[in-house]
Amino acid sequence: MAALTNDQILDAIASMSVLEVSELVKAMEEKFGVTAAVAVAAGPAAAGGAAAGGEEQTEFTVTLESFDAAKKIPVIKAVREITGLGLGEAKALVEGAPKALKEGVSKADADEMIKKIEEAGGKASKK
Known about the structure:
It is built from six helices and three strands, in the order αααβααβαβ. By secondary structure, the chain is of the alpha+beta class. Keywords: Ribonucleoprotein, Ribosomal protein.
């Protein structure tokens, strides 16, 4: 059996839905006894350190923190609009809050996304 190249693996992951990638991450965490949360937690801390050094942060991650249960459907619709996900994937993302919606967006785009989520009945933040 021939080994897959890194490019082949990345192409396969790029063709997956967000839900499939999430399941892959969970399976990798279980198989290798690690957590991806450690790597994610280091990212914002490193960015905060760079910002303190005088550089202004230019890229943000928008995170859905929570939502009003009575307004779940409007929040799912807002998440679909922001992310371009399908209905099932957006529902899973909303139900799994807190979850990152988009990474590497400008401050203006992040503020607009947060506004849409809050208008729909959710709570979002940018980091």
